[in-house]
Amino acid sequence: MSRFKGNIAEDRACNYLNERGFCLLERNFYTRFGEIDIIAYKDDVIHFVEVKSGVEYESAVQNMTRTKISRLLKSIDVYIKKNSISRSSYMLDLVVVTPSGVEMLENITI
């Protein structure tokens, strides 16, 4: 996916999160392990959000691989240490953006 399409998907995801009461803390947090697309806050929990887009929901979700989750968890660890955050106050979420809408899967694990 091009960076341009990725930015459009991330913008739609940010709007979706804002409409649901999330406070956006940061976008595109880079580490040597990869990038966290969106970092948001709601109800005393920090949400590390990966944005995936596709023509269909299933194809977008399938792009969330074990390798990607592993890299995200390492990047989250960097952010947590850098900002002295309690480990019990965060979760990894997935926002799926398709032409038909936006959907959020909270607290994803493998």
Write up what this structure looks like.
It is a single chain. The protein is of the alpha+beta class and 110 residues long. It has one domain (3-105): Trna Endonuclease, Chain: A, domain 1. It has three helices and five strands. It has helices at 3-19, 57-62, 66-83; strands spanning 23-31, 34-42, 45-53, 90-98, 101-105. A hairpin with a 2-residue loop joins strand 4 and strand 5. The model has no long low-confidence stretch (mean pLDDT 91).
Provide the fold topology.
Elements: H1 3-19, E1 23-31, E2 34-42, E3 45-53, H2 57-62, H3 66-83, E4 90-98, E5 101-105
Parallel strand pairs: 3-4
Antiparallel strand pairs: 1-2, 2-3, 4-5
Tell me roughly what share of residues is in helical segments: 25-40%
Strand sequence of the main sheet, in spatial order? 1-2-3-4-5
CATH-scheme architecture: 3-Layer(aba) Sandwich
Major sheet description: 5 strands, mixed
Oligomer: single chain
Q: Looking at the structure, what is the overall shape?
A: globular
The total count of helices amounts to 3
Extract low-pLDDT stretches.
Answer: none
Strand residue percentage: 35-45%
User: What value does the average pLDDT take?
Assistant: 91
* Structural class computed from helices and strand pairing: alpha+beta
CATH fold-level assignment: Trna Endonuclease, Chain: A, domain 1
Assigned CATH class: Alpha Beta
Q: What's the helix-strand series?
A: HEEEHHEE
- Total number of β-strand segments? 5
Q: What is the count of distinct domains?
A: 1
